[in-house]
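In this section we walk through a basic example: taking a raw amino acid sequence and producing a predicted 3D structure, encoded as discrete structure tokens. The instruction is simple. Fold the sequence below.
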Amino acid sequence: MATLKGLSMHIKSGRAWQLRESEVTDESVYRARREFIKTAGLVAAGVLVGPRLAAAKTLAELRKLKPIEQTKYNPGEKLNTYEQITSYNNYYEFGFEKSDPARLAPSLRVSPWSVRVSGEAEVTGTYSLEDLIRPYPLEERIYRHRCVEAWSMVIPWVGFPLSALIKRFKPTSRAKFVEFTTLYDPAQMPGQRTDVLAWPYVEGLRMDEAMNELAIIAVGLYGKELPGQDGAPIRLVVPWKYGFKSIKSIVRIHFRETMPATTWAKAAPTEYGFYANVNPHVDHPRWSQARERRIGEFFKRPTLMFNGYGEYVAALYKGMDLRKYF
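The resulting token sequence is shown next.
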């Protein structure tokens, strides 16, 4: 498998996130109330055609974003810029350098897009993107994002609670885990033409984790629809876990009784456990997780347990040995 790159290597090569402050978008532009899903944006995403435009306008009118200053999840830290968030990415389906996804992923076709729901649930089937997200008012949440490679960002995601989506499908008592699968399309995703990972990409959560209020389905960031490199058109965000758990470009949701065999846990089981909780006390075998470097900053800062979200999630792991279940 390919070796993950250390951040210092990218500092030397002058990546896009090192832009001067004067070269990035003014952050004040996102602080006012906005509509997230505008009719033109929905057409671009391929979820509307012809006579359905009128319905799209109604959806857009219902989905007014809250001012991000009012969200209770705001960690009170400076946000990374849109350019940083969209130019420095791990998305192996589009290449192994941090700049590859921004170069290759914007051409990903998201029209049409559907998600298959299957497994231990009363309601299953295949849903278009519009049908999947239609019932849920969108909100903007500012979350820390922490990568296992010891870099981090603060991102204003737009989405809705994963728990609301799960309830819609009425999982049975046999559903102990929920499994997610990324699109498999080597013609569009050149990284899938390699054997660096077992494709398609698969991730999963224990059911109580999936029902936690912090876990969201994201369809945008910075008040705009998701770009390809950040997981368009629909992705998972689990902010107390390392970034590889927040699977991108989802095409399947499967409810199951047993723990899923997730992609990185299969590829390197001693390095990437199923739980992947941000934990400064459990090092990666090849580097420490005690400190992290926020993209756009030079000095490292201490890593926070559960990425700083312990008040919301610590009870999920009461009594568990987090060195064993890493």
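Looking at the output, two observations stand out. Residues 53-62 form the longest helix (10 residues). The chain is about 20% helix and 20% strand. In the next section we compare this with other chains.
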